Amino acid sequence: MLQLRPSCECCNKDLPPESTEARICSFECTFCAACADGILTGSCPNCGGELVARPRRPASKLVKFPASTQRVVKENGCNEAS
């Protein structure tokens, strides 16, 4: 089951479970659309995988299967990706 991490690893932008701006790789690294499409040019800086739109979990399922609250943020943002 996807963790649905709460923020972008680059800029720490909030990405709630219903966000259409969240992008993930196959390892669930999570980025906002602006960072994914901009500085990262569609590739995960951690694994090199493709960044795609994160699926949204139905609100009715979030009660039993809540999104993660653990933020993963790169210390220097994604500046090292450029």
UniProtKB/TrEMBL annotation:
Lineage per the UniProt record: Bacteria, Pseudomonadati, Pseudomonadota, Betaproteobacteria, Neisseriales
InterPro entries (alphabetical): DUF1272 (IPR010696)
UniProt-recorded name of the protein: DUF1272 domain-containing protein
Organism encoding this protein: Paralysiella testudinis
